[in-house]
Design brief:
The chain has seven helices and four strands. The protein has about 210 residues and is mainly α. The protein has a two-stranded antiparallel ribbon. It has a two-stranded parallel sheet with strand order 3-4. Strand 3, helix 4 (about 135-140) and strand 4 (about 155) form a beta-alpha-beta unit. The longest helix has about 35 residues, at about 25-60.
Length: about 210
C-alpha cells in the first residue's frame, strides 16, 4: 500500500494506487450502522423536519430544498440535499427580509438545514462519519479531486469538524482526514458522532 503520508507532499500518487487496509467494521458493519441509525433518526425527527420545511416555505418561498454538487467516494459527484436557509433574492424586503434572516440563522445555528442529508446516507452517497464532502469547485481549486479522502464515503460529520477550528477549509484539514481514512473503527466513529452532538448543544446552544 502506498503510504498515505505521501499525500502531504507535492508528488502525490492517485487514489487508484492507494488501497487502505479496511477492517472488519469498515467492510461489513459501517454501512449497516449508517442505515439503521439514519432510519431511526429520520423517524424521530420527522416532526422537526416537517416544521423546518413549513418555516422555510413561509419565510423564503416555495423552494424548500436545495441541491449542491459535492465530491463523493471515488471522486464521483453526487447531489447533497439540504433545507434552504437563504433566500434566492438577497435584496432587503423590510419585515419579510427580517423574518428570513432570523429563520435562516436559527436553522443554520442548530444544523437543521443538514437533516435531509440522512437521505443521502440512506442512498449510499454519504456515511454518518467521514470527511465532509467539498463542493466540486473547491475540490478542484485545492487539488483534492484525486485525494485519498475520497477512498471512503463522505460523512455528515467527520474528524475535521470535531478536531479543527471552526471555519477550517478542506484544503487545510486534508491531513486530519487522512488520519481517519487510515484507521476507521466503530469506536472512532462513535466518538466523532458524540463529539459532534455535544458541539451542537454546547456551542450553538450557548
Amino acid at each position: 500500500m502506498v503510504a498515505l503520508d505521501a499525500y502531504r507532499t507535492d508528488e502525490r500518487p492517485s487514489t487508484r494506487t492507494v488501497v487502505p487496509a479496511a477492517g472488519l467494521y469498515e467492510r461489513f458493519a459501517k454501512r449497516a450502522f449508517d442505515i439503521v441509525v439514519s432510519l431511526v433518526v429520520l423517524a424521530l425527527v420527522a416532526p422537526v423536519a416537517a416544521s423546518v420545511a413549513l418555516v422555510v416555505r413561509l419565510t423564503m418561498g416555495s423552494k424548500v430544498l436545495v441541491f449542491q454538487e459535492r465530491v463523493g467516494r471515488g471522486a464521483h459527484t453526487f447531489r447533497l440535499v439540504k433545507f434552504r436557509s437563504t433566500r434566492d433574492d438577497q435584496r432587503p424586503r423590510d419585515d419579510v427580509d427580517r423574518r428570513h434572516a432570523s429563520a435562516g440563522r436559527f436553522i443554520r445555528r442548530w444544523s437543521l438545514d443538514e437533516l435531509p442529508q440522512f437521505l443521502n446516507v440512506l442512498r449510499g452517497d454519504m456515511s454518518l462519519v467521514g470527511p465532509r464532502p467539498e463542493p466540486v469547485e473547491l475540490a478542484t481549486r485545492c487539488g483534492l479531486l484525486d485525494h485519498p479522502r475520497h477512498l471512503v464515503r463522505p460523512g455528515l460529520t467527520g474528524p475535521s469538524q470535531v478536531s479543527t477550528p471552526r471555519g477550517t477549509s478542506p484544503c487545510e484539514s486534508a491531513g486530519t482526514d487522512l488520519d481517519y481514512v487510515r484507521d476507521i473503527t466503530f469506536v472512532g466513529d462513535l466518538r466523532i458522532l458524540l463529539r459532534a452532538c455535544r458541539s451542537i448543544v454546547e456551542v450553538r446552544g450557548s
